[in-house]
Amino acid sequence: MRRALAVARAESVDVPVGAVVYGPDGEELSAARNERELTGDPTAHAEILALRSAAAALGRWRLDGCTLVVTLEPCTMCAGALVLARISTLVFGAWEPKTGAVGSLWDVVRDRRINHRPAVYGGVLAQESADLLRTFFR
Questions:
Q1: How far apart are CA 36 and CA 25, in angstroms?
Q2: With a cut of 70, which residues of the chain have pLDDT below it?
Q3: Which residues are catalytic?
Q4: The predicted structure's pLDDT at residue 8
Q5: Which residues pair with 22 in a beta bridge?
Q6: Which residues are bridge partners to 48 per DSSP?
Q7: Distance between CA 84 and CA 93 in Å, rounded?
Q8: Could you tell me the strand order of the sheet in which 18-22 lies?
Q9: Strands 28-33 and 18-22, how do they pair?
Q10: Concatenated DSSP letters for 63-88?
């Protein structure tokens, strides 16, 4: 999570959310920060960018055995993407009561109707992650 927080803190006009994907061996495959404002792309969330980069690094779309660490609870788009990518483990920091899709508003990743459900560890360094967002929005 500390690595994801460092990525989130990089200078940018975007909301400070950082994401890192680690391979099955624990090696960092990718790291990304929100880039919606920077690129004008509504899908340029940190998680999506990190998943794309990790898939490119591995040369495959299936990211089974990989861990996604992100500073904010994923939204429905990102939760759906990490399920489709077959991420094995999701670790996130701050809870997002307005748009969170991993337990706050919805629980996309643990819905029994889908074919893949990653292990989830939420609230890791939650205060530090939330403080980063609060500072940005002030």
A1: 31
A2: none
A3: 47
A4: 98
A5: 28, 67
A6: none
A7: 21
A8: 28-33, 18-22, 67-72, 89-94, 119-121
A9: antiparallel
A10: -TT-EEEEEE---HHHHHHHHHTT-S
Report the pLDDT value the prediction gives residue 20, as an integer from 0 to 100: 98
Residue type, 9: R
Q: What is the pLDDT of residue 119?
A: 98
CA pair distance 108, 114, nearest whole angstrom: 9
Q: Which two tokens stand for residue 129?
A: 């992650």
Q: What is the DSSP letter of 110?
A: G
Strand partners, 121: 91
The length of the chain in residues reads 138
The torsion angles phi and psi of 57, rounded to 5 degrees, stand at: -65, -40
Determine whether 10 is exposed, middle or buried from the number of CB atoms within 10 Å of its CB (0-12, 13-18, 19+): exposed
Strand pairing class (89-94; 67-72): parallel
What pTM was estimated for this model as a whole?
0.96
